[in-house]
């Protein structure tokens, strides 16, 4: 799963027993050499799709981590791009990769922006928010966008119940729930708390007009269902 430049088992254990913020501060220098980083295929497919919907002016990467989403913004935005995250360690890595971008350290459940961006993206972050926390996140993104602005993020189709992947994700979430029941501080990271219909409902409640588009470059399952969708949430006013 990990390259020789990735974290050791001991380092991962220390991270998993930390808070989300502290855990990512520790993981940041080696994060790009783990499977947790959003794959380049998703980044490239998202950039290709958004290029057909743009160009855009200013861009915001929500929970930017080491800056994978800023690669997309750099391709499709004509104006300044900004990354926001609450991990100082992740932001330090992102600055190294994207020196032309602006970075803000903040809790994205209380984004400090008002009608500042034309496009917002996010990659691999939604599992770090409990369902009860999503409204504050989505309302903040809505507030950060200008009227007509777009919030885009990729979401994978859940693996079928007959697949190994389904049971691996179920097991991971189960382990995390046990860990958080017996250990403090909690480390919120769940793979099965973000079904697309629930996300659409929360986005609509936050004021977005929501649509989806298959990321065709990532292929389809045997039943014809796309492997991955791009959620497109637009602020209408």
UniProtKB/TrEMBL annotation:
Keywords: Methyltransferase, Transferase. InterPro entries: Methyltransf_25 (IPR041698), SAM-dependent_MTases_sf (IPR029063). It comes from the Bacteria. One of its GO terms (biological process) is methylation. GO terms for molecular function: methyltransferase activity. SUPFAM superfamilies: S-adenosyl-L-methionine-dependent methyltransferases. Residues 60-149 form the Methyltransferase domain. It holds the Pfam family Methyltransf_25. This is Methyltransferase family protein. It comes from Paractinoplanes brasiliensis.
